[in-house]
Write a structure and sequence with these properties.
The chain is α/β, with parallel strands linked by helices and 269 residues long. It has a single domain, classed as Rossmann fold, CATH 3.40.50.150. It contains 9 helices and 7 strands. A 7-stranded mixed beta sheet has the order 3-2-1-4-5-7-6, sandwiched between helices. Strand 4, helix 4 and strand 5 form a beta-alpha-beta unit. The protein is globular and about 50 Å long.
Amino acid sequence: MADQAPSFSGPGPEAYHHGLCPTMFEPYARDLAARMPASTGMRVLETAAGTGVVTRALLKHLPADARLVATDISEDMLAIGRSEVPADPRLEWRQADAQALAFPDASFDVVVCQFGVMFFPDKALAMREARRVLKPGGTLLLNTWDSLDRNPFARITNETLAMLFPHDPPTFFHMPFSYSDRTAIRALLETTGFAEVEVRRVEQAAECASVDLFARGLVYGTPIYGEVQARGTIDAATVATRLGERLTELGGASPHRSPMSAMVTTARV
């Protein structure tokens, strides 16, 4: 995990898009897009765009003459984004590694990254690349998940996996919920050339019509699926069923509602 980003390919992107995006990611996408400073003719780069949940939110805030380049390292994720986000003359999709951006220096006014930084093997390199492609006075907007303790759906997922696989539990969720320390985030950005760094906790609610859809998204729509498959002792459907039972205790079954928390960061060049 320390040397490479986890894979979000294969069956994962569809389950991610339908099971997790409306529940977990749309509330924070709306929040992040609302923080974007809008100006005539602006150019925006989105990294780790996934299936386009933030892309769609950003388009609602962009002026008519703006341009948005939505990038992700996964072509499977981008394929869903291209099919789900309505065509827009302001929007370009492009496969790209946030640690090696193929864009000229000072070519964007804003760089946006939702829940991607935790997965970058070299976070400092990714932030230096974001800094490089931003114009003087440009803005960086990013968010990262808060700790497991402040995201009970994720804590319960980890507990369920530990119960079902007591000798070798899947560990994926330790990564996305491990980067919430304000001091560490601020230090990362300041040492890579950013200023006016503000890190704030933002709480939202994970809401969905069916807890089963949410549970399946958490299992099938993340690298947990591959970890379960590799162990070969319990199938993913059983894991999703048991997880759904635990999540129902947390926030109900139909509908489901549970608290979640993230750290939202803004910085300037």
